[in-house]
Design a protein that fits this description.
The complex is a heterodimer of chains A (150) and B (115).
Chain A: E1 5-11, H1 15-23, H2 25-32, E2 34-36, E3 45-50, E4 59-68, E5 72-77, E6 94-102, E7 107-114, H3 124-130, H4 132-146
Antiparallel strand pairs in A: 1-7, 2-3, 3-4, 4-5, 5-6, 6-7
Chain B: H1 3-11, H2 16-23, H3 26-35, E1 41-42, H4 43-47, H5 54-66, E2 70-75, E3 78-83, H6 86-114
Antiparallel strand pairs in B: 1-3, 2-3
């Protein structure tokens, strides 16, 4: 088990097209299925309402982190915050990063969502750096242990 | 992804953060690695071969215990700790869910920009 999500997808569209689909709040809203109240601006909160059928009651909120035209777009949010009874603002948000690379066929889009491991401890980042390989290895051990077939 | 499964996972989101936190430490990871063999260990057994003191090991075990990763089991007068895989399963299930949602969103993005 990895503690960050990584996706890569090849899109047959120019980088400029993908950039617009990601950062124009109306276009983003169409494929992501959220009706956003306003544009993405670095450092600012963007709010909206999910339009995914069955989840229309769910509010969407993110804080825009970086917008580096046609290269990088990132925001922090609380993933899968669908339960209105839970105050997600108490949880550490995760960081979602989109990176764009031009390819011969179009655009390579790399997505990472990280920060699932965040904890409020000063020692934590160093411990994690030193233990990167160990962490992955240990989680594998745990996973093997908990896998239903083992 | 059924609605029922979504609600079930959503309903137990809360205890996740302490689990990640508890596992974010080398000593505790090594304790978990030892315990996830399935056999319960006493504090003395866990201290043996470690550079840490009994008190330090106990402190780490309490952190793991409060995150639900280990349980204190008593057999007569003896106190031992055993691994509980449930929180790890839940984390994995949660990450799988977030990951699946990105797959869906990115495939919608693909059709959106390619057509």
């Amino acid at each position: 088990m990895n503690n960050q999500i990584e996706k890569r997808i090849e899109l047959k569209a120019p980088v400029s097209r993908v950039w617009r689909a990601l950062t124009d709040y109306r276009e983003f809203g169409q494929w992501f299925r959220v009706k956003l109240e306003g544009p993405f601006v670095p450092g600012q909160i963007v709010r909206g309402q999910i339009t995914y059928p069955g989840y229309e009651h769910v509010k969407w909120e993110a804080v825009v982190h970086k917008m580096e035209p046609e290269r990088q777009f990132s925001f922090t949010w609380h993933p899968y915050a669908v339960d209105s009874k839970i105050d997600y603002s108490k949880e550490t948000p995760t960081l979602v990063e989109f990176r764009l690379e031009k390819t011969s066929k179009g655009t390579l889009l790399l997505l990472t969502e990280s920060g699932f491991d965040k904890i409020p401890s000063d020692r934590r980042p160093e411990a994690f750096r030193r233990n990167d390989g160990g962490w992955t290895e240990q989680m594998k051990n745990i996973e093997n242990h908990v896998a239903p077939t083992s | 992804m059924s609605h029922q499964r979504r609600s079930r996972v959503a309903a137990r989101r809360q205890p996740r953060a302490p689990v990640f936190a508890a596992l974010g430490d080398e000593t505790r990871l090594s304790l978990v690695a030892k315990l996830c063999g399935g056999q319960p260990y006493s504090i003395s057994q866990l201290t043996k071969g470690s550079k840490l003191t009994r008190q330090a090991i106990t402190k780490h075990l309490r952190v793991l215990e409060s995150a639900g990763l280990v349980r204190n089991v008593h057999a007569g007068r003896e106190s031992r700790f055993e691994f509980d895989p449930k929180p790890v399963e839940e984390i994995r299930e949660y990450l799988d869910l977030v990951s699946a949602q990105w797959d869906q969103a990115l495939s919608r993005l693909k059709s959106f920009v390619e057509h």
